[in-house]
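Hi U.,

Before I forget, here's the chain from the pilot set. I'm dumping it here mostly so it's searchable later in email.
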Amino acid sequence: MLKVNVPLTVPSPMAKEYTKNYRLATKGTGRLFLFAGDQKVEHLNDDFAGDDISLEDQDPEHLFKIASQSEIGVFATQLGLIDKYGPDYQGIPYVVKLNSRTNLASIKDHDPISYGWYDLEDVGRFKKQSKLNIVGVGYTVYLGGEYESEMLKEAAQIIKDAHQQGLLTIIWMYPRGKNVPNEDDINIIAGGAGVAACLGADFVKVKYPYTGKEETAKQFKTVVAAAGRTKVICVGGSKLSPQELLKNIDQQIHIAQTAGSAIGRNLHQYSLPEAIKMAKAIAGIIYHDFPLQKALKVIEK
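Structure:
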């Protein structure tokens, strides 16, 4: 059984709850397959309607169907969606995304900022009242902008308060704004991962340069090293072919030694049967150490 290192900010009476949540989210492996469903705000309708997007994706329930029928670790989305659809999908392990911003305001004009919509008391009350399987919370931090200090302060408080309830904490860490010359710079990404470690996050979700090259994965080891005991998971990024996505995830896990992936549009833009098949291949790499060829065979069936 996976040995879980319980943070000191988790009170002794909540250590069992934290351990249970950690093992459930990582399926006892220490790795995390996060299904990201927060783009309804972040990307508005751009990710949910289009020529190459399944018509099923226009209905928010499509996200919950995928999450309930796939071998994901957690489904991360806003509390409002969980409130509406949770009664019909009580078996899903949820991560409540506490802050979100739309893509309408260009970061070329203003440094990005996104404060929390709810506090941990709200989440705790909702968990108790709904009896849903809420295992953690997520929060986005934008480093390098004029609002950096406010967001770091809020993130630190959220992590402390979440641990008090035995919940996992996942930080979406994005260096972004007029002071960040290149968001794909691995050294800058590593710096952000180190900041997440200093905040005390359990997992940090970071960008990954999707080059498909083994050399990129080797260089990305510096991000994992910078995060220390905070586990690194990589964003799925823009829409890729299934083969390209699986190749990159294989390199992230088996070369860069990351601890998982956060996949959104590369799952939910497919029909339900296709999404389930894709999720099975991704879970195979993350949770079962499938070699790439075995994962590719899953999507070919």
